[in-house]
Specification:
The protein has about 60 residues and is of the alpha+beta class. The chain has a single domain (about 1-60), classed as Arc Repressor Mutant, subunit A (Orthogonal Bundle). It is built from three helices and two strands. It has helices at about 1-5, 10-20, 25-45; strands at about 45-50, 55-60. The protein has a two-stranded antiparallel ribbon with strand order 1-2. Helix 2 crosses helix 3 (about 25-45). The longest helix is centred in the middle third of the chain and has 21 residues, at about 25-45.
């Protein structure tokens, strides 16, 4: 789901249709998935910075 949204640049409507789930369910799962990914990156010593649209972008750890 995350790769469909951010790598393949599909809209939430397109992804919901593709996965046959309600758009609200998709958004909820996407939020939880991004929150978990951000937490895991931060625990691994990586920095995450918000970018345009409120999304987070991977930033390699400096140091």
């Amino acid at each position: 789901m995350i790769s469909l949204r951010f790598v393949h640049d599909l809209s939430t409507t397109e992804i919901a249709e593709l996965l046959s789930i309600p758009q609200g369910t998709l958004k909820s799962r996407q939020y939880k998935g991004l929150k978990l990914l951000r937490s895991q990156l931060e625990r691994a010593g990586q920095q995450t910075e918000p970018v345009k649209g409120g999304h987070y972008e991977y930033q390699p750890h400096k140091g």
